[in-house]
Amino acid sequence: MNQSETRTLWISVASAIFAVFLLYSYTQEKSAELTKKFGAKKRVVVAKKEIQEMQTIDETMLQIQERPVEYSEPESISDVEIAVGQVALAPINVGEQILESKIRQPGPGINPSSQVAPTKRGMALPIDKTRGVAKLLKPGDRIDILVAVLEGTGTRKVKKVKTMLQNVTVLATGMKIVNELPRLFEKDGDDYIVNNLREDTDYSTILVEVTPNEAERLVYILDTSPGSLYYTLRHPSDHKFIRKRSETTVYDIVSKPKPVIKRPTAPVQRRQPARVNKAPKKKKKKKSGPFIDL
Prior knowledge:
single chain, Type Iii Antifreeze Protein Isoform Hplc 12, 4 helices
């Protein structure tokens, strides 16, 4: 290699180093501008692929990215190990940040008896789509229980609809229990399938929390007329009790006055004056002799 070629080589090397220096300076300048505009960056854990609801999260589903603090969610996590092994409470899309509020530790199964308040009782009631708010009830909801019963005898028999119980807590809907992850493991050959119970409506009973006296009244209805129970859903903030409960009959629906049923009255018995037994009058004895009574 002659002197001219050596000089050309060193010039090329110097030019390359200078270009790298300019590129580094430019990136640092732009990074400073972005930091000034958006603030400092933060490490966040994001979904590497789509995560289904009630799916257990593993490390292959996650990755770490650096994002400006301004664009980081307050509940975002920065360590992959925090999310591994937990369950997604909602679907998580690709690139979406993993939030503490969207994951939960599975934990052991919950005993239904531990969810019943002291002095209360857990009781199963039948439900269907017509009588049970289209089976949209969830554990933790509160409902009112209505009953349609016949009252009276003979021609005086009439069906009445009344609100029997108010503000009743739903502890479970089918296999889904309050405060427990709504999922069910089913064996399929050698594998286990995780079924999401959040959207499950394939149940025919609900578990409610009632007092012992309320349980007795419900048992009476279930024994005499099990198809007469209906449920209405309350707003989560509505805890009001209606003291004066109304009742509805066919006359309220057709807007006709209720017939006045005259009850037979017993005849009024007049009191007879009490008899006073008079003492018998003494008969005067006639005197014999020459004398005469004046």
